[in-house]
Specification:
This protein has 333 residues and is an alpha/beta fold. 41% of the residues lie in helices and 20% in strands. The strands form three sheets. Strands 3, 4, 5, 6, 7, 10, 11 and 12 form an eight-stranded mixed beta sheet that branches. A two-stranded antiparallel ribbon has the order 1-2. Helix 1 packs across helix 2 and helix 6 crosses helix 13. The longest helix is centred in the first third of the chain and has 27 residues.
């Protein structure tokens, strides 16, 4: 039975690709050869792992258990590989990070560049997905750490705060309402200087924007949840013209003059736009602030590579890396 999982990489690739032909291309083997190798594994198991009568192909009950066991083996292998990399003083190994599309494309590149320059022998990969998918990836060991603004389950994950993110009211500069509220406006440079949390900048009253059309992020996005809290605290109900699922696309519509919106300063500070086309305003409620955290599964191996990446972001060591035992950690306040 010990040889059952010698070809687990092949089985797992077919499972992920949901197609023998697509898996064969990814594995750089012919489809007939791949089919023969998979059949040999199935013969050894004694039952089929894939239902080939459906398109795309599906796992059988035995196949699901085989994949579950394979993922556990992958996690063990990965943990041991990370252990070896610590012995070799960060001269090898892997680091797999999961993040939202916005953070991975706007906020993380500078840290990834610095990490890769300092530790060129560590293979670093970044996966962007929604928070629920990232949590599942971390649970099954597909990724080591999540950089996100969603609060993770504290019974399952340890979360380390990295930086604060602020939500900003963005209004097309062509809208006449901006003249009336000019004294509340904040520039991009002032946002970069941290003025959004300073007493020097007065939060704008949303009541004045009741006649202003809005374009908002979809309700599946956490920013929308915070936006709704902000609106509710000020008893404000906007006229919503359009909902979009990408924040940068949303900002483009604001820039074009379609409507106002609530955008994170991560996007405002991390992208290049013609900021003369948009007026920015500080929002008052506590919901306008979110915390970006690094989260990893409790009782899993906290590798030196993970610690090194956090050190690149925060400029400090994280004690759990000294023990390699996440169970011994104390939770962040």
């Amino acid at each position: 039975m010990s040889s059952l999982f010698n070809r687990k990489d092949l089985i797992y690739t077919v499972y992920k690709e949901k197609s023998f032909s697509a898996a064969a291309q990814k594995l750089f083997v012919s489809q007939p050869s791949l089919s023969v190798m998979v059949k040999r594994v199935e013969d050894e198991v004694g039952v089929p792992l894939f239902d080939r009568t459906t398109k795309p192909i599906r796992l059988t009950k035995a196949g699901k258990e085989y994949i579950k066991a394979s993922e556990q083996i992958f996690a063990i292998e990965k943990s041991f590989t990370n252990y070896l990399s610590s012995v070799n003083n960060l001269q090898g190994g892997t680091l797999d990070i999961g993040s939202s599309q916005l953070l991975s494309s706007v906020a993380l590149p500078k840290y990834i560049f610095e990490f890769s320059r300092e530790y060129p022998n560590i293979h670093l990969s970044v996966v962007d997905a929604d928070s629920r998918t990232l949590a599942n990836y971390a649970m099954n060991g597909s990724i080591d750490m999540i950089i996100d603004n969603q609060e993770m389950d504290r019974d399952i994950f340890t979360s380390i705060p990295l930086w604060n993110e602020n939500l900003v009211l963005c209004v097309p500069s062509q809208f006449p309402i901006n003249e009336e509220y000019r004294e509340y406006q904040v520039s991009r440079q002032e946002i970069a200087d941290g003025k959004l949390t300073s007493d020097e900048v007065t939060p704008v009253p949303l009541s004045g924007f009741r006649e202003t059309p809005f374009v908002l992020i979809t309700k599946e996005n956490d920013i929308r949840n915070h936006t709704e809290e902000i609106f509710e605290e000020e008893s404000f109900k906007p006229e919503v013209l359009l909902e979009l699922d990408r924040l940068e696309t949303l900002y483009n519509y604001v820039e074009l003059g379609m409507g106002a919106s609530v955008i994170s300063d991560t996007l405002i500070l991390g992208t290049n736009h013609d900021y003369s086309k948009v007026c920015f305003y500080r929002l008052a409620p506590a919901a306008a602030r979110r915390v970006i955290t690094a989260s990893y599964k409790k009782n899993s191996y906290f590798s030196p590579a993970m610690n090194a990446f956090l050190r690149v972001i925060t400029g400090k060591e994280h004690p759990v890396a000294d023990t390699g035992d996440a169970a011994a950690e104390s939770e962040e306040d």
